Amino acid sequence: MIKKTFLNLPTEKRDRIIREVKREFADHPVDKISINRIIQRAKISRGSFYQYFDDKMDLITVVTGEFSNHMYEIIANSMKESGENVFQLPIDMFNGTMEFVQRGNNFEIYKNLFANIKANGDDLSEYFSCLSKEKLQELSEIVNRTQKNMDQKESKALREILFLVLRGAIFDVFARGKDIKEVGESLEMKINLIKKCVGEENPNG
Predict the structure, then answer these.
(1) Residue 112 and residue 46 in one domain
(2) Same domain, 103 and 26
């Protein structure tokens, strides 16, 4: 867990540490991350490092914090602009992710984070950390409201299917190196097929 001592650091020092943590994740996969390199470049002692962080997992939180905030905005905007269209949400989340990772060295960072992920496993949990338990419950309630022909179990299954398809798209980009545009088009096609299967009359709407 990131400690208050880090959050309370002067902005310049905190930003310097964050910059060097991101640099390390951009240059190396997770299993090759070196605390020694980070503390040397950030000009802090090892003792100070452990006053700020418990372990390497905290560094992942540092790296993904900005991304999580970005995804909160994507989710909120998608729900507002689409009129709570749960089929549009995975598409907007994918597009928002791709827009974010193409800033600066973000693509290298997330490629390294997801270097060994499994499309149907829990290794994508950091990507979905922006979806807190409360947010998932909120999405479930939206599915319940908008898909009136479904019972609670079916609504939950629909949500899981939509996010499984999204996970697969993220996996294709970061782990398999597939073209972003092609993956995005494939994702939209799959979502439209799901819409048809659940009785949506206009799959392109």
Answers:
(1) no
(2) no
Joined together, the tokens standing for residue 159 give: 């949500």
Dihedrals phi, psi of 58, to nearest 5 degrees: -65, -30
Residue 205 lies in a domain: no
**pLDDT tens track for 34-75:** 999 999 999 999 999 999 999 888 998 888 888 888 888 888
How many domains is the chain partitioned into structurally? 2
Do residues 50 and 74 both lie within one domain?
A: no
pLDDT, tens digit, 9 for 90 and up, residues 109-162: 988 887 655 544 444 454 455 445 556 666 667 777 777 777 778 888 888 898
Alpha helices (runs of H) in the chain, residue ranges in sequence order = 4-7, 11-27, 35-42, 46-52, 56-81, 88-101, 106-113, 133-146, 152-174, 180-197
Residue 150 falls within a domain, yes or no? yes
Tokens 């003792």 identify what position? 47
Residues 6 or more apart from 82 whose CB is under 8 A from it?
88, 89, 92
Q: Phi first, then psi: give them for residue 175, nearest 5 degrees.
A: -95, -35
- With respect to residue 10, please indicate whether it lies within any of the assigned structural domains: yes
Q: Which two tokens stand for residue 29?
A: 């996969």
Residue 15: which domain range?
A: 1-54
Crossing angle for the helix pair 56-81 and 88-101, to the nearest 10 degrees: 130
